[in-house]
Design goal:
It is built from five helices and no strands. It is an all-alpha fold and 176 residues long.
């Protein structure tokens, strides 16, 4: 009987050990599967992050190129503006000299006026003439300002590209 009892106990131990082994194997397989799934998810995330980084690097490159183009455009604009400023300064100087020459002569000789007019016409460079369009000089808004009584005698800038006839006050008297 003791031997039967020992055999039963031994069979129970074997059965219990076998169940523990099966459970351990199942748990090991479940953990292995979970680890593989986590590794696949991690790899997928890494691929997604690498793709995002690559996209952001391309965007940075594109933005750097655009910034470089804008800087070049701005530099060209500054250069053109400086050139225009130099032209305007030169034109102002010529106008000042012409005004001094005309104002020195109290009689306002017709030949002096003609000479100064030609000199002013020559001072307008071809680039300055091309930049000023007639439509800007004769816009309805500008024309209405010029012909209103309140601004008729007010000091206002004269368009650079068109030459208006001299004022009746400045016209030379015809000598007989």
């Amino acid at each position: 009987m003791e031997q039967g009892h020992a055999q039963r106990h031994q069979l129970q131990l074997i059965d219990l050990t076998s169940r523990h082994r099966q459970e351990a194997e199942l748990e090991t397989e479940r953990l292995r599967s979970s680890q593989q799934q986590a590794e696949r998810m991690l790899e997928a995330r890494e691929r997604a992050h690498r793709a995002r980084v690559k996209g952001l690097e391309e965007q940075i490159s594109t933005l750097k190129d655009q910034l470089q183009q804008e800087l070049c455009k701005r530099q060209q604009f500054i250069t053109r503006s400086t050139h225009c400023g130099d032209e305007i300064a030169s034109l102002r100087s010529t106008l000042s000299q012409s005004l001094q020459n005309v104002s020195r002569d109290p009689i306002l000789d017709a030949s002096l006026l003609e000479t100064e007019t030609r000199r002013l016409d020559e001072s307008l460079s071809p680039t300055m003439r091309r930049r000023c369009s007639p439509s800007r000089n004769t816009s309805p808004c500008r024309l209405s300002r010029i012909h209103t009584p309140s601004t008729r005698f007010a000091a206002r800038p004269t368009p650079l590209c068109t030459r208006s006839p001299p004022s009746p006050l400045l016209r030379p008297s015809v000598r007989k």
